[in-house]
Write a structure and sequence with these properties.
By secondary structure, the protein is mainly alpha-helical. Helix content is 73%, strand content 0%. The chain crosses the membrane at residues 63-86, 93-118, 138-160.
């Protein structure tokens, strides 16, 4: 029975990653919600990181790769790690705070990297400011998506656990 929980978690992560292939607003993706959810629900941190990374690589086979992808993967693994701290305390305010904070961190680090490596902006304070200002419309979609998908993943699975006892974490569910 514990395999049903594990398989369900894997399918949720895979579904989140594959949903990137469906048309959506720029940057409105389930990535941060998926990473936090994986960290909070898989029993083992390495399993959670492996599943999120594998799902990302799979979806990126279809989307394509770019030079900042290793940074994106590293950030997502960090957000899985953050999610492990939600494992025993999945209160909605705490989960949404983690999503908001992760979204801000992702925005700051990835846009700093764009400024530093893309050649689109001069490597000056003004260039950095311009890079962040131009990224704000994308951040609005990212923040909305991060909060929405985090709520859907955590809330949906909590409802499923309540409805289907086989999904509840037990001391026997060491795999998931």
């Amino acid at each position: 029975m514990r395999n049903i929980r594990f398989i369900t978690l894997v399918l949720i992560i895979l579904g989140g990653a594959l949903s990137r292939l469906i048309p959506h607003y720029w940057n409105m993706t389930p990535l941060i919600g998926m990473a936090l959810f994986g960290g909070a629900h898989f029993q083992n941190r390495r399993t959670a990181m492996g599943m999120v990374l594998a799902a990302m690589i799979l979806s990126d086979l279809f989307i394509g790769y770019h030079s900042l992808l290793p940074l994106v993967y590293a950030l997502l693994l960090g957000f899985v790690w953050v999610g492990t701290y939600l494992k025993e305390n999945k209160k909605p305010l705490l989960v949404l705070t983690a999503a908001f904070g992760s979204s801000v961190i992702f925005f700051l680090i990835t846009n700093f990297a764009v400024w530093l490596t893309s050649g689109l902006y001069p490597l000056t304070g003004e260039g950095l400011t311009r890079c962040f200002i131009y990224a704000i419309p994308f951040f609005q979609h990212q923040l909305l998506g991060d909060i929405l998908f985090t709520a859907v993943f955590f809330g949906g699975f909590a409802l499923a656990e309540h409805r289907f006892s086989v999904l509840k974490k037990t001391s026997a569910s060491l795999v998931a």
